[in-house]
Amino acid sequence: MSLLVVGLSHRSAPVSVLERAALNADAQVKLVQDTVAAEPATEAAVLATCNRIELYADVDKFHAGVAELSTLLAQHSGVGLDELTPYLYVHYEDRAVHHLFSVACGLDSMVVGEGQILGQIKDSLARAQELHTAGRLLNDLFQQALRVGKRAHSETGIDRAGQSLVTFGLEQLAVGGAVEEWAAGRRALVIGAGSMSSLAAATLARAGVAEVVVANRTFERAERLARILTEGDDTAVSARAVPMAAVPDELTRADVVVSCTGATGLVLTAESVAQAVEGRTGGDAAGTADDGARASVGTAPSPATGTAGAAEENCPLDLAAVQGSTGFSVHGEAAVAGLDAATLEQHGAWVAGGAVDRRETARRSPEADAELITALAATAASVGRIPELRRPEPLAVIPRPAPALFLLDLAMPRDIDAAVHRLAGVRLVDIESLADASADAPMAADVDQVRRIVSDEVAAFGAAQRAAHITPTVVALRTMAADVVAGEIARLDGRLPGLDERQRGEIRQAVHRVVDKLLHAPTVRVKQLAAEPGGAGYADALRTLFDLDPETVAAVSRAVDSTDEKDRPA
Questions:
Q1: For a Cys staple, 44 with which of 35, 132, 417, 544, CB 3.0–4.6 Å?
Q2: Residues 50, 105, 260, 315: which is the catalytic one?
Q3: Would you call 105 a catalytic residue per the annotation?
Q4: pTM value?
Q5: What is the pLDDT of residue 8?
Q6: Which helix (H) or strand (E) holds 479?
């Protein structure tokens, strides 16, 4: 059997796809169960975080395993296989081990070096153990990944490069300033009471917020988190719990909102956030944002204010008919389409004669005007409209007001409507914007040291697995040798009945020593060879050379797995 992982993450897929493919707790359980029920797989575990979904399995066929795991991911995520496939990555055997160890060390995280992933790996293993879908391979793999991750954090300075997603998100809200200075005295609302929300609440408390309000669908969990924050030695802060129904009212009082729930739909809509901002500022957030957006695009000024001398006197066109047009001034509009040359020339003469800014016409010669009129006529004849004859005057960009409400959305799928980005007086940081910001984050020098640790640990894990693979064969060989010795001693007792007990003991020990010495060097050497890459074939050679019963080897293997399972910590 061989390790296979199929998955997608922020490195392979856009956030919009990750959001749609996100799995809730029930879907993860069903995915694991369906995976072990499929033919190629005997073990399975799911690692699902806010920016990755990975399915690990012990399979006996690579191509069949990839096809089956990909199909199962598509089925349970609800994203079509054709759409999902371009974003999937596949790792096999040592590469799969290397990938999980890198993930455990935080090398593959959105924020390099963050340590939250260790808790998520531990939860993934615990779920697989509870469902009895993790056998010897995945138990060994995930437990070793946890040890490798802890080693990386204890032996290197990766923590200096990394930080939690919560801290990184708060830094983005603070726009480069110190989080402690930005957070001091603010009121925070935390929606959710899971591990990520709890970390956010504790981080905000340590940063110096004046109050933390916790809202959760299960009110008791919100109360427990609020009590921990209030009574904690390093997080003593005014904290209280509220039901989810109180969130709209709390929004009008909060300065900072962090949301990370397991909801499948939006927790905060753009409308509810706009109402909250309007309720606390007395302004129209949506209207101000739209004004800002229009200003940044640069729409054309009205005919009355955008030109010098824009009177209709002597103009051959009906200006009133084109007043409502967008994107063009009255001086170059669809109304000229189909005009005869004489009328078009009159229009050009009226424009050149003073209906537009004199600064534009002063730089043109009569010949240039004639060429322009000819070009206008050709354009009108071919496309039915002409471009604007003058340049629009630049508009002053309307600045957005300073944020009155800061929102951090750490959920996948998202809790807060992305349309909130367009609201004035609001700053939203979500997984998508965090991914963009982290792309330019500097890497610490310690990352190279962590990579070396990962490479060494992958080699050691592979050697241990290959050595463990041959152990049942070696045990079966020694069991067969012991049975042969016992049979020969019994036959000797029948042929030499006059031997006393001391003599029988001497003979028995002598035969055992001979067998042990003959088997010692080959069994030690075969374990060493099996630990090397490609060493799995030595077990087959040993079984063939000594004509070992495959069922005996399998029985030993099952006994070893049973003992490991019983001794393994829960």
A1: 35
A2: 50
A3: no
A4: 0.60
A5: 96
A6: helix 446-495
